[in-house]
Amino acid sequence: MEKISIEKCGEKEVLSLKKRYKLRLWWAGDRCFKVKKDNVIVALLEAELSEDESILDIDNFEVFKKSKKVGSEIVTALKNTGFNMCLYANDKNSKRFWEKHGFKAQDDGTGVPKHYYYFKDAKE
């Protein structure tokens, strides 16, 4: 079985990966994590825990080579952490991807949809 691991990623490494893989999202180094599959870096994740540590707020998620089901494997690994999660889907493809994985859109209070995944709902 292939193993997914998530490790802190420094700013220099983020910039190097962004250049090497021509990543299109904006990345801030202090909340970035490299995602490895079988010890090979396959994606970047920018996220932080909410103040009460109940929700993992995902700012960016970018898989280097699309169409290999790697993104789905990473989301499954994130769901297995037991954290509730939230994010803004930035386009139709992103929205479809996250909804396929059980994230549901809710108004963020400003009229903008924000997608949430609640761990307790998934267990029921």
Primary descriptors:
4 helices, 7-stranded mixed beta sheet, 35% strand, alpha+beta, single chain, 124 residues
Summarize the structure.
The protein is an alpha+beta fold. Helix content is 28%, strand content 35%. It has helices at 11-21, 70-79, 92-100, 119-123; strands at residues 4-8, 32-37, 40-49, 55-63, 84-87, 104-107, 113-117.
Can you count the beta strands? 7
What kind of assembly state do the chains in view correspond to? Answer: single chain
Question: How big a fraction of the residues is strand?
Answer: 25-35%
Q: Please state how the strands of the largest beta sheet are arranged side by side.
A: 1-2-3-4-5-7-6
- Range of helix content: 25-40%
* Separate helix tally: 4
Question: Can you offer a commentary on this structure?
Answer:
A seven-stranded mixed beta sheet has the order 1-2-3-4-5-7-6. The model has no long low-confidence stretch (mean pLDDT 90). By secondary structure, the chain is α+β, with helices and mostly antiparallel strands. A hairpin with a 5-residue loop joins strand 3 (40-49) and strand 4. The protein is built from four helices and seven strands.
